[in-house]
Design brief:
Elements (H helix, E strand, L loop, with lengths): L1 H6 L17 H20 L17 E6 L5 E6 L26 H10 L41 H12 L9 H21 L5 H22 L5 H27 L10 H10 L10 H9 L3 H4 L2 H14 L3 H11 L2 H25 L6 E2 H8 L3 H10 L5 E2 L5 E3 L22
Antiparallel strand pairs: 1-2, 3-5, 4-5
Length: 425
Amino acid sequence: MERTERQRPNHPPNRSFAPSESSGSSSSTSRRNYSNRSRNSDYKYSKYNTNSNRSFEDGSSDWRSKRSSGGKMFVQKLETKDDSDCSHFDLPPVIVGTCPFMCPEAERAQRERLRDLAIFERLHGNPGKTSPGLAVKKFCRTMSAKSDQALDVRPLPVLENTLKYVLSFLDSKEHPFEVIHDFVFDRTRSIRQDLSIQNIVNEKAIYMYEEMVRFHIISHQKLLNGDSSSNASSMHHLNMQQLSKTLITLLNLYEVNRSNGAIFENEAEFHSFYVLLHLGSNSQTTGESLTLWFRTLRSPVIKSKEMCFARRILRYFRMCNYKGFLCTIGAEASSLQYCILEPYVNEVRALALSFINNGGYKLNPYPLMDLSMLLMMEESEVESFCQACGLATCGDELGNRSLPTKQTTFSSPKGFQRYNFLNKI
């Protein structure tokens, strides 16, 4: 005992020992704390949880996939930062919607009183009258599973029919696209909100999210082709935000519903959209982080033709290889991929024109016919594009038009102007 007492002071004074298995509640608390730290670390490095898209869904929650102790996959809905008393990994109470209409009766009556009806919801054009077949539930920022009731939430079959009804307005020619977009934009956010509140994450939810991503991509192109007013610019910005959030949720849903290792029919194409949305220098996702993202993808997705196309386009764009960029788009791009890429096409065309202007021979003008093939443009539009870049063209006695090089007036075109793309419809 004396020997032991003499050795005891040699231990470091602040040294602590791990509790034994028989230490009771102290050990249990320690294990719970370690589990919480591990789970938070897991979320921090989640595949699709980038800083620029931390909120995957509108309203009060984010989506992520998590594996339970039984090995079954489910979706974890994270609470808002305001709910500081709750763990970020506690499942919220799930509501099963019972509303049989596209818009709850209480909301429909209130909006009639307030004359808060979109032009598509008015009965016989009356701004204070609607019907169950016209009114569609609006997006509510403060709506959550804790505050709402089942009668205010639409079940999956009603949500499917509502989405089909809302998207049918995209074919309408009676109103400007900005008016149609404003209505569909809000009502699809409400549909996503009801899906989120009920934790609906099955394959039907995947189909609905795919349709909503398509809507935002088509809107991305059409809003660019509209007027250049501040309102249109704001609508385009908000549309891009919701496109990013909807797409990230969809990519997570693919992982949640994967059972046998196979990929879904449209999964590769929608992963390619994520890459193409990160081409521009204004994107918050840098090349390095996108490279890390590629490493998280499964082999069938990486090797798909859609992802091979997206990666080639990314490489050509960053290497300023305008010929490879334009030719690859003309040969392989799908209609939705081209909707995303169209704003970059004119940027690359202007870059090519700059190279030709600076690198050509002053005494040998560049024929517009050859320039048309290089820029993948109609010859009739090449001259107007040159003028938009501050370059003058000339013609010979036979009527052939050409571009004199070494002009010092070149400037990047202002705004967005749509030009037809050869080999693209």
